């Protein structure tokens, strides 16, 4: 079987080039996601703008299944080669569609959303979930340049369609209709982008349990990292909760800035490479330390950039938010390592920490910005330590990489760090 590179001309891009490509794709994705509500604020009346924000939040929750599917497919692909993934993908999409069919009408009534809006959101979300399969295959095969292209294509379909609908004056329904149509059309482009060698007929099939485990871990990560923002909205007065919302922009920046490290490391983690986890943690830790230091030196500037000049006086709180995000970035690496190692309950420390944080905030934590932010930092520290201990224990008990079960003979060059197509 011949090999081709990501660029299609026989060249294999280096890991640095792949990292830059995935990073730029991530910036593009987040940039488009940011443009949607900003443009909505300029083209929609207040009631429809609030509905758009609510629908985007519901879509983010539904998108957890897409990320879980991508991680599960990437891990399985890296470990077992070109195994079939169509059946678990169809099952994941079907289950997601069924849940949306039940939950979205309830949300429409409870959150005062229109029927067409929730229907179009459901179509868009199902398309995004299905896309997780092809992104996962590209990631597992270490075709990172194509993965970056796939991420950009999906963002263009998911958010670009809505942006076009808003800009053309389509209103809320028109924006969602455009987003749903373009998201479905992008699936065909992802299939073409993922063309390559055929499937291995003797490779084991990806199990549904693996997809559920990865999705559960993704959901736990989302919940634990957003819990403080929701609790601040619940317990703080409007002005203080607004300040807290600005602070969480720094948290999310520190959390997602080094995400590229985890994306590139995951296939090697799936094959039991012990050195990869150490390297990933060092890189993510260094990035987090740099961001925390920057928040100490220029906290007022950071708050001003995130929320405007009226928030610069809260710059002293910036290190709390940045440190929380930096710790959760380490947790993200560790949780992915546990999923890659087929741990049974990789998200258990996250759920335990979330319950403890909610209980503490409701009872003993001072209901101030500093109080909740400090409790969130403590929670992130406990979560990182608990996840690290669980990961170390799992890796100590696991067989060495050479004894991991595989369905096929090793592929030459498979154990070297590269990012080209197989």
Produce a short descriptive summary.
With 422 residues, the chain is an all-alpha fold. The protein has two domains: 15-206, no CATH class; 211-403, no CATH class.
Please give the structural blueprint:
Blueprint: H1 15-43, H2 46-62, H3 64-80, H4 86-110, H5 115-140, H6 144-167, H7 171-193, H8 208-235, H9 238-256, H10 259-270, H11 274-297, H12 299-307, H13 318-340, H14 348-363, H15 369-397
Helix pairs in contact: 1-6, 1-10, 3-5, 3-8, 3-10, 4-5, 5-6, 5-7, 6-7, 8-9, 8-13, 8-14, 8-15, 9-12, 9-13, 10-11, 10-13, 11-12, 11-13, 13-15, 14-15
Largest sheet: none
Number of H- or I-type helical stretches: 15
Structural class: mainly alpha
- Cα-atom radius of gyration: 21 Å
Oligomeric nature of the chains: single chain
Overall strand count = 0
Ends apart, CA distance between termini: 9 Å
Outline the low-pLDDT stretches. Answer: 1-5, 396-422
Strand content: under 5%
Q: Kindly state the percentage of residues in helix.
A: over 70%
Tally of discrete structural domains: 2
- Principal-axes shape call: globular
InterPro entries: Poly_Biosynth_Transport (IPR050833)
Membrane topology: Multi-pass membrane protein
GO cellular component, one term: plasma membrane
Transmembrane segments: 15-37, 49-69, 90-111, 117-135, 147-168, 174-191, 211-232, 244-267, 279-305, 317-336, 348-365, 371-392
Structural notes for this entry:
The chain is 76% helix and 0% strand. With 422 residues, the protein is mainly alpha-helical. It folds into 2 domains: 15-206, no CATH class; 211-403, no CATH class. Helix 8 (208-235) runs parallel beside helix 14 and helix 9 (238-256) packs across helix 13 (318-340). The protein is globular, with a radius of gyration of 21 Å. The protein starts with 14 loop residues before the first helix and ends in a 25-residue tail after the last helix.
